[in-house]
Design a protein that fits this description.
The protein has 257 residues and is an alpha/beta fold. The protein is 47% helix and 16% strand. Strands 1-2-3-4-5-6-7-8 form an eight-stranded parallel beta barrel, surrounded by nine helices. Helix 2 packs parallel to helix 3 and helix 4 runs parallel beside helix 5. The longest helix has 19 residues.
Length: 257
């Protein structure tokens, strides 16, 4: 079992940072700054598979875990990422137990799943004993599903009974949109759904986390106090834009005429 997954399973609080830009140097730079994992996003970003591979290798070089979010719950989208050997994989927009089962089947070899066999980096390019790799493969990658719709919350009891799920990640923004309050993350109805999700995960002893764009202390303290075990906050884009805005304003003030 990889170290990241071990920490997740024993209930340690974990912090993450999102990598959106298609430059592996960013993962290498940020990976050495104390984060437990880097969220490598391919759902909304312009990364191809080769770039994702380089990001995973950069995370390894930096000494932090790589967790890749694929664009959609399709086995062929998961397969190539799994062969690269990330520490975790995220399936977005899982709205039912059936969808969760399909996601897990894509990650697990037969007889318990339907993952096709063709490992690459995940087995050191064939240098490992294949029988041992097959036996250990399910422990090597943390498998997450995202709860981003009110329908998922309604079916959460069944979802939590699906084997091989290692963690639940709440997507507050899309969750808010599913009940007509897009981007109003702190609306009472949205928070109620989030609290239900956290409570059900706790009852099932399932690790539960959240991904948020805000990276200020007040916001992060709010989500921590809500009861999340792991939080991914901010991103390379947010960091660059925020810093550049502050610098631009400062320089305009100096050079005002």
């Amino acid at each position: 079992m990889n170290t990241f997954k071990e920490k997740l399973k024993v209930g340690k609080h974990l912090i993450g940072f999102e990598v959106d830009l298609a430059d592996p140097c960013i993962a290498e730079m940020v990976g050495g700054l104390g984060f437990d994992y880097l969220w490598i996003d391919t759902e909304h970003e312009a990364m191809d598979y080769e770039t994702v591979l380089m990001q995973i290798i950069a995370c390894k070089a930096a000494g932090t875990a790589s967790v890749v979010r694929i664009p959609f719950n399709e086995s062929y989208l998961a397969k190539r990422v799994l062969e690269m050997g990330p520490d975790g994989i995220i399936f977005p927009m899982i709205n039912s137990a059936e969808e969760a089962e399909a996601a897990m089947e894509a990650c697990i070899y037969p007889p318990n799943g339907k993952r096709g066999f063709g490992p690459r980096r995940c087995c050191r390019y064939g240098a490992e004993d294949m029988t041992q790799y097959i036996e250990e493969s399910s422990d090597r990658t943390a498998r997450f599903i995202q709860i981003e719709n009110v329908d998922a919350v309604k079916d959460l009891d069944r979802i939590l009974r699906v084997p091989f799920i290692d963690g639940i990640i709440v997507g507050p923004c899309d969750l808010s949109g599913s009940i007509g309050h897009l981007n109003d993350l702190f609306h009472p109805e949205v928070l109620k759904l989030i609290d239900i999700t956290i409570q059900k995960c706790n009852d099932a002893k399932m690790p539960v986390g959240v991904a948020v764009g805000a990276n200020d202390e007040k916001s992060l303290q709010f989500w921590y106090d809500r009861g999340f075990q792991f939080i991914s906050a901010g991103s390379d884009i947010v960091a660059i834009v925020n810093t550049a805005m502050v610098q631009s304003a400062m320089m305009r003030k100096i050079f005002s005429d």
